[in-house]
Structures are given as structure tokens and as C-alpha cells.
Amino acid sequence: MSQVGVHKVLVSACLLGQPVRYDGQSKGIISDWLNALGAEGRTLAFCPEVAGGLPTPRPPAERQGERVVTASGLDVTTEFDRGAELALQLCQAQGIRFALLKEGSPSCGSGRIYDGRFEGTSMAGEGKTTALLRRHGIRVFSEDQLPELASALALAAATSA
């Protein structure tokens, strides 16, 4: 468990510059605040898709209801569910109550995901990992919500001090 008032954040590994996305790329975000958090040892990089057993690179996948499939129709739901479960186990073991996950991803999307037709159209929804973490009380933010995450961490630190 982290020190009183100091909360760790589970972060999509691709947002921290690791080339783990389906296309073998990263989506590293440049943020002095996030870099400082990492320098304090308060970020924990994690890719649910890789942890769930999928390779990098891999075919793009999208949610279709509770299933996750590739454009060719391969069902990869088991790997996505396994990655989500491993993310939850990690958060529980480390006492992590906050996550910063990649918007749009079938694992990590927190407000929008692709609509399952592989046409580049997004819709309101959440990824498998986000849904599981939220069901267990972990607050999930996207890379577009850094100020909201910073505020939530500050409030949590103030109330636990």
C-alpha cells in the first residue's frame, strides 16, 4: 500500500511511451504533471491486452457487445477479459484507486470506444478493463481528463492526510 496521502495511478502503458498498441506504436502524452507523478514513483504502466496474452503488433479489435473481435472475425474476448482481470488484481494488490487509460480502446476506453464495425466510427461506451475497474470502485480517467485526475488525486490526498 502506498504512503498515506500518496496515491498511485495505473496508467495505460502506451500513454507512457511503451510501444504496446495493436499497431506496435505508443501514444505517449507529454505532460509535465504526469512526468512528475512518474518521477515520484506514483505511476504503474500496464497494458491489459498484452497482459491478457495478445502479441504486439496485433490485428485491431473492437467491442461488439460483450465480445471483442478482430476485423477478420477472430474472437479475442478471452484475452481482453484476462487482461482486465489482471489489471484489477494489480490495482487491488497495490491499493490503486485511480487509473489513466487510453480513450477509444476496446480495453481502456472510458467514455468512447469504436463501434465494432471497423469503419473508424466511435460511440459512447467503455472498454473491458475500464468497465471491470469501475465495477470495483476504481476511478478511471482518459488522457483528455488530466486536470480531473489531478484534482481527484489532490482531494484523495487531502482527505487521507
TrEMBL record:
InterPro entries: 2-thiour_desulf. It holds the Pfam family 2-thiour_desulf. It comes from the Bacteria. PANTHER family: HYPOTHETICAL CYTOSOLIC PROTEIN, INNER MEMBRANE PROTEIN. This is DUF523 domain-containing protein. It comes from Aeromonas lusitana.
